[in-house]
Amino acid sequence: MQGFFDTKIEFLKGVGPQKAALLNKELNIFTYGDLIQHYPFRYEDRTQFHEISTLNGAMSQVQIKGKIRSMQTIGEGRKKRLVVQFADGTGEIELVWFKGIQWVMKKIQPGMEYLVFGKPTAFGSKLNMAHPEIELITRQNQEASYLQPVYTTTEVLKRKFLDSKAIGKLQLYLLQQAQNKIRETLPKNILEDYRLINKRAALNNIHYPKDQAHLQKAQFRLKFEELFYVQLRLLKLKIARIDKFKGAVFHDTDLLTRFYNDHLPFDLTDAQKRVIKEIYKDMRSGQQMNRLLQGDVGSGKTIVAFICMLLVVGSGSQAALMAPTEILATQHFQGLKEFADQMGITIALLTGSTKQSERKIIHQYLKNGDLNIIVGTHALLEDIVQFKNLGLAVVDEQHRFGVAQRSKLWQKNQYLYPHVLVMTATPIPRTLAMTLYGDLDISVIDQLPAGRKPIKTVHRYDANRLKVNGFLKEQLEVGRQVYIVYPLIEESEKLDLNHLMDGYESMCRAFPDVPISIVHGKMKPDAKDYEMQRFVKAETKIMVATTVIEVGVNVPNASVMVIENAERFGLAQLHQLRGRVGRGAEQSYCILMTNYKLSKEGKVRIDTMVRTTNGFEIADTDLQLRGPGDLMGTQQSGVLDLLIADLGKDGVILQAARGAALSIIDKDPDLSNVENQVINQQINSMKKTAINWSRIS
């Protein structure tokens, strides 16, 4: 039966080799299975006819029926348009075409009764409809009461007569043939527990729903199934890893206790203590740890990582911390060296700019075990870097490293895989974390250290520039430093953006006696580092920069962040940038500058930033605004090969699907019970490389 859905699309009636080649290239549709899972992205409501007298410009697309009173072409050349007066006895509306005029004129004639579908637009007291669909009234379409599916297509396909309607016809023909080939892919008890309709009914009603109620049931069933199989796959991966990979056992807490009692300069938050307990439990379990540590900028992830390193070093092993940039690696190293020196622990820094002579010594000490902790960049992944006994690998800002790079660190211990702690300051919404990192255990630091004042965020329009500069002057006079961030380096004619250099010059004019740094992505790395270091040492008081300062530099004295053209940034980026200030005990400020023209989305982003500093709330809003593809680079990673589910909107369904998958894996990890045979059958029908197990293969 599965063979039917593997049939090449060219064999479907109405397709053929030429159209098949276009569907392959434009929409990735190669087989019957690909087509039947090319779901509509919206539906046109054809369930009722409206009277023209009831129409208004606020309505979305409507269906009307009536007769053509008159038709005429107006204008010449490119300004030529066809105008048709259309009436139904209750009123009159103008139908207008700017393109395909000859084709429409051949198709329609006055006096005949037509069905028209389109969007009414108001011009003064008159209504018109531009480029509506128009067809002669027949007995079928006059009685028709249905939701018409609208499918994604492309300009290339439209030119070859494969528009949404044509794809819909192919779907109808395929569905007729497929009825007795569609098999159930979920166990009976799940269908009953979650009140899901069967697979055949779901596929019929997703393409041609009788009404909204049938459509909602079909969408719920298909989304649930898709998310269920995503979660099942991740849970099976996790079980396989736990069974396969044993981990070193670390339970010597002497070093950790000594640090805690004698050298820790501040109290840990309850959240930090909770996370340390979770990690300690993993490390003494005998299984290899794979844990994701999430926490906002400044929540104290690095000190948690160091305490975990003490557990490893105290048990005679080594620890490594890998960061994405030299600046960040250096900052981690400087922060940890102070503690390591107090504890009599050896620590070193290895980056691309470490001198050859120093490298040799580091390599030697790592290999013979004299070096306890190494902090570095990608340089740690080089084959020449060998450890005597690597027990813990900490990866900072995980999304900047690929899985292949991470796994290179795992290979650095020939006896047992090291424990892995992945840290990120990018708050990942719960739904996305469950799907992206469902095979990792997740810990969250959701508290800021005591004494940190929340950053005050305000929105100001460009017209308030003088007032803003006055505020900056006050802050500079009391010894603070200021960041000013611009979205672009080069002027773009299309985008009305403040040019970085213009911004730099206007700051120089506004603050003639203040030393100012400038940093952007086009500068050479050493020039960039030089300017950054000047700002860190407070030799310069204002830093004008692009987003290169987003991750990393810690300047406790910088208490003001001005973000120019804030509407041009994504929410996650705005939140990351804001996290550059608020590192000290002083009150910090973030000023979002925009012009008056704000899109609806831009307004939501700005309002969210002003309202909250909670990274997870911000990440949830970001997911709803942008969808998962843009966040975390998930499209490239192939983790989200989703056909119908939307992580921004389907969090509740995801929770239910994960619950169902967990209960099945708990009771029957090998899926050997009779009732789970349909799941086994579905998984076995998939290619070994498949990521989405819910597909029709």
UniProtKB/TrEMBL annotation:
It catalyses: ATP + H2O = ADP + phosphate + H(+); Couples ATP hydrolysis with the unwinding of duplex DNA by translocating in the 3'-5' direction. Its EC number is 5.6.2.4. Residues 471-629 form the Helicase C-terminal domain. The keyword Hydrolase applies. Residues 282-445 form the Helicase ATP-binding domain. GO terms for molecular function: 3'-5' DNA helicase activity; ATP binding; DNA binding; hydrolase activity. Belongs to the helicase family. RecG subfamily. This is ATP-dependent DNA helicase RecG. It comes from Fulvivirga sediminis. The gene is recG.
